[in-house]
Write a structure and sequence with these properties.
InterPro entries: Ala_racemase_N, D-amino_acid_metab_enzyme, D-ser_dehydrat-like_sf, PLP-binding_barrel. Keywords: Lyase, Pyridoxal phosphate. Its cofactor is pyridoxal 5'-phosphate; Mg(2+). This is D-threonine aldolase-like isoform X4. By secondary structure, the protein is of the alpha/beta class. It contains 11 helices and 14 strands. An 8-stranded parallel beta sheet has the order 4-11-10-9-8-7-6-5. The chain has a 4-stranded mixed beta sheet with strand order 2-1-3-12. Strands 13-14 form a two-stranded antiparallel ribbon. Strand 8, helix 9 and strand 9 form a beta-alpha-beta unit. Helix 1 packs across helix 5, helix 7 packs across helix 8 and helix 9 packs across helix 10. The two termini are 26 Å apart.
Length: 377
């Protein structure tokens, strides 16, 4: 397992264009030693080399060693080093917690036997970790960009939903080409896009599944629940090389609503809008047995709704501090999943009322505020 995780964490940076140190360890304590370490350059430069060779057929240990030779020039540490000896900044993944999160979701989904699991890969962008998720019960993966879908399929993932719209005609052909080796579904919210998808699929003689995205409160992509949903479904059903699969009903804003009662109320709105969309299809005598949505913060609620047939948690693999601020039914911080991803940094300058570390805005995001620091090394 550890060699496979090490590989998947290397592949995780396939869309990163800057140099990135990536280190795998067993837990976050001073006495821990390094399990695997990588000093990784842009994945794109060797992606085709990796996927065009027989490397994937080798045992995981040999894959790992070969992968390192492709990428590494100066590792940030050596296997067996103490965590305190890692060259910083470094991305640290706690293997024990990552595996625990995979197993926790697998066990949680047993409470909803009629609901399938399709994790979102935008969190890790990694085919190897995606394969571990499939081994843990997932039927396939979601992704948000065409490049992510390409990396997943090239990495052996056979069932991918691109939960976004693809518009550019060259990109549509790239998307359709993936259907030669995998089951591909994509979201739509316009007739023009449906026509272009049909044309691209017909050109390459493949079949694409079409999922209509519904605006269930996020006010981003998606048509309003009602007659427009049926109109688009009919359009899909009238064209060659595409088929109507179902509905995509997701509101990302709900994932970080703090109180459980408020999250439930927000998800109830999603459910009601989804029912409106399903009613419009039923009135038009269009069968729909697929409704996907939900995320790490709300998947229990969608899964229990008897409306959703699939959920898409993604952040659960690594988690983050902001999710840790959500509350459960007892008004305690949610602790179902553990944070497994960290950035190790070193203090490089100290003044009376401040300290400067060697990690800046290119290494951490301030979207959810200043990072929480852990000082236990």
């Amino acid at each position: 397992m550890s060699d496979e995780i090490g590989l998947c964490l290397c592949a995780m940076i396939h869309v990163v264009t800057q140099r990135l140190n990536l280190t795998l360890l067993t837990s976050m304590t001073k006495s821990d030693t390094i399990l695997n370490n990588l000093c990784v350059k842009d994945f794109r430069s060797v992606q085709s080399q990796y996927f065009s060779t027989s490397l994937r057929k080798l045992p995981f240990k040999q894959q790992f060693e070969s992968f390192i030779r492709m990428f590494s020039s100066r590792p940030p540490c050596n296997v067996g080093d103490s965590v305190t000896d890692v060259e910083t900044p470094a991305l640290l993944v706690c293997l024990k917690k990552l595996e625990q999160n995979l197993n926790t979701l697998k066990e949680a989904m047993k409470a909803y036997p009629s609901v399938k699991l399709r994790p979102h890969a935008k969190t890790h962008k990694c085919a190897m970790l995606a394969r571990l998720q499939i081994q843990s019960g997932a039927v396939g993966l979601c992704c948000q960009k065409l490049t992510e879908a390409e990396a997943l399929v090239q990495g052996g993932i056979q069932d991918v939903l691109l939960s976004n719209q693809v518009i550019n005609k060259k990109k549509l052909l790239r998307l359709a080409s993936l259907a030669r080796s995998a089951h591909i579904a994509v979201c739509v919210d316009s007739e023009r896009n449906i026509e272009d998808l049909s044309e691209a699929a017909k050109t390459l003689d493949v079949m694409l599944d079409i999922v209509i995205e519904v605006n269930v409160g996020g006010f981003r992509c998606g048509v309003e629940p009602g007659p427009d949903v049926a109109r688009l479904a009919k359009k899909v059903m009238s064209l060659p090389n595409i088929r109507f699969k179902g509905l995509h009903c997701y509101n990302g804003r709900n994932q970080h609503i703090r109180s459980l009662a408020d999250r439930q109320a927000a998800v109830n709105e999603v459910i009601e809008k989804t029912k409106l969309a399903l009613s419009a299809l039923k009135e038009s005598e269009i069968e729909c047995n697929y409704v996907t949505g939900g995320g790490t913060g709300t998947f229990h609620l969608e899964a229990a709704s008897e409306v959703f047939t699939e959920v898409q948690p993604g952040s659960y693999v690594f988690m983050d501090v902001d999710y840790g601020l959500n509350l459960d039914g007892e008004e305690k911080f949610v602790s179902e999943f553990q944070q497994s991803l960290y950035i190790l940094s070193t203090v490089q300058s100290v003044a009376e009322n401040r300290a400067i570390v060697d990690v800046g805005l290119k290494a951490v995001s301030l979207d959810s505020g200043v990072p929480t620091y852990w000082y236990n090394l």
